[in-house]
Amino acid sequence: MKQHSTETKTIVVYKNRSKLNRSLVLILFFIGVLLGSFLVVTFQQVNAGKLSLSSYTFSKSSYASLIDSLKSKGYSFGTLDQNYTGGKVVYMVHCADYTFKGEKTFTEVETNEGVKSTYFIRPDSTFFPQTIKTFLALQTAGCAIGYEYDCLNRADNNMTLAVLMFQAQINYLKNLGFNLCATDGHGDMEYNAGKIDSTQIYYEHPELWKQNNLVSLFGDLTVNASYLSDGSFHKIVLPSNLMDKVIIECHTDWY
């Protein structure tokens, strides 16, 4: 009987400990939620007070409003094949990552606004062959053309193969008639995106840029400039403290 009584007490103790552990977990969880909410609200309040943000989402009217807002601040507009010589200049950049559907929005609005932009094209994208004539027409109309590469991703981090692929794609684009001025590194979602830094080829082989007369968007052009992108939140947010040189990246995927 004593042995049975001891076992019963032991079981009761374990059950009580289990309930206590579950209670502690729940308490810690709710504390975490409350703390997280407090930090988010505090962060939003602090930043809203400091930056006075203006937000522009994706439509023809909002894109036109973005350009008009920049004009009202005294900015002119340029393309990345032009050297920056000072003054308040905005460079509108469009990356054609996975679709080209937003090009018509950009072209229509920019034509109405008297603005030219720069397109970064991906020769290894599935839709590229169907858009070659459109890109060439944009170049003829005064837009600049850049090369968006993801060679290191597609080469599975084999730098030797990536270098060969990089030069081969540039030669291919030049043979098509494109006058390339700049590059932008891209991490393809289907090829190790987030695991391999596609821009590493720029830092290990800068001679590729020199021999092809190219500049890098992130290695060269964004130095001493305000860089804004719609990549994370699918909208452009203008802070009140823009620098004189501004680069705004709008993807053709979202519009």
Which labels suit this protein?
255 residues, TIM Barrel, eight-stranded parallel sheet, 9 helices, 10 strands, globular, disordered N terminus
What's the quick description here?
The protein has 255 residues and is α/β, with parallel strands linked by helices.
How would you describe this protein?
- This protein has two domains: 1-51; 54-251, TIM Barrel (Alpha-Beta Barrel).
- Helices cover 47% and strands 18% of the residues.
- It contains nine helices and ten strands.
- The chain has helices at 2-51, 60-72, 103-113, 132-140, 151-154, 159-176, 200-204, 207-211, 217-221, and strands at 54-56, 76-78, 89-95, 118-121, 144-149, 180-185, 215-216, 226-229, 236-238, 245-251.
- Strand 3, helix 3 and strand 4 form a beta-alpha-beta unit.
- Helix 2 (60-72) runs parallel beside helix 3 (103-113).
- It is globular, with a radius of gyration of 26 Å.
- The N and C termini lie far apart (78 Å).
- Residues 1-15 and 25-53 have low confidence and may be disordered.
